[in-house]
Specification:
- The chain is of the alpha+beta class.
- It has one domain.
- The protein is built from 3 helices and 7 strands.
- The chain has a 5-stranded antiparallel sheet with strand order 1-4-7-6-5. Strands 2-3 form a two-stranded antiparallel sheet.
- The longest helix is centred in the middle third of the chain and has 12 residues.
- This is Membrane protein.
- It comes from Halomonas hydrothermalis.
Length: about 160
């Protein structure tokens, strides 16, 4: 787990153009017969996330200061990620939900800031999540809990009778 956290005062990335790209873990070989033979090369590969932030001036300043600041071993919360070279923990949305992902890194830095509407600054980047965000294989034992999890959540939080 990384020692550095994404600054708490900054927003999560925008939903516009937000997308995940999984690195292919398989190796494919074209056979002489025309068929393709596939086999698993790696059991764990990273996921890349295209993100963008739209930040007011104060948050834009904090983002850039955090990105470029040196790491502080004694107090990581007061240091940065040294120009994007160090991993950090941040909240991201994936199909398994909005949660904190560990060991996230910037790939190739960030683009921006670009002035938007005269008030906000847009930053775009590609982040790499070290561990692919998927449910564990044991969750396949009860697939109906996955399929109907949204309904179960509503029933448990909205329709459930109040405690007396």
């Amino acid at each position: 787990m990384a020692e550095i956290d994404f600054p708490a005062g900054l927003k999560t990335p925008l939903q516009a153009d937000y997308g995940l790209e999984h690195v292919n873990a398989n190796l494919e070989t074209q056979m002489a017969s025309g068929k393709t033979r596939s086999r698993q090369r790696f059991t764990s590969t990273p996921t890349r996330v295209n993100v963008q932030w739209l930040l007011p001036p104060g948050q834009a300043q904090l983002f850039e200061a955090w990105y470029w600041a040196p790491y502080k071993p004694g107090d990581p919360s007061k240091g940065g990620i040294q120009g994007g070279t160090l991993p950090f923990n941040t909240k991201l949305k994936t199909p398994i939900g909005l949660r904190i992902y560990e060991d996230v890194k910037f790939l190739g830095g960030y683009n921006g800031p670009v002035l938007v509407g005269g008030r906000f600054w847009r930053f775009t980047a590609t982040l790499e999540i070290a561990k692919r965000p998927v449910l564990p294989p044991s969750s396949l034992e009860f697939p109906e809990y996955i399929l109907y999890s949204g309904i179960i959540d509503i029933v448990a939080t909205v329709k459930w009778p109040p405690q007396t």
